[in-house]
Amino acid sequence: xxxxxxxxxxxxxxxxxxxxxxxxxxxxxxxxxxxxxxxxxxxxxxxxxxxxxxxxxxxxxxxxxxxxxxxxxxxxxxxxxxxxxxxxxxxxxxxxxxxxxxxxxx
Length: 106
What we know:
- By secondary structure, this protein is α+β, with helices and mostly antiparallel strands.
- The protein has helices at 3-25, 30-47, 53-56, and strands spanning 73-78, 86-91, 97-101.
- The chain is flat and about 50 Å long.
């Protein structure tokens, strides 16, 4: 394997570990969880790898904080026939709303 591939694999494993730790420790220490997320984001930028989607949607796009449903973010689902259904995630720290549209079969 090449050097770059090894670096990317290490970065992916560290990113998933840091996000899992941020999820586990969020109730005790929110700032430490946010530091874990910032560190994971830096790993992703340095190694040029994407953060997995299930963790990417747990970061606020504006303030870059870790979102924990029910504590510092609100999740709503909206179903609309004409405009399309979506999930709205609102960060309660900075009030930024992010929408993830749901693809429908036609």
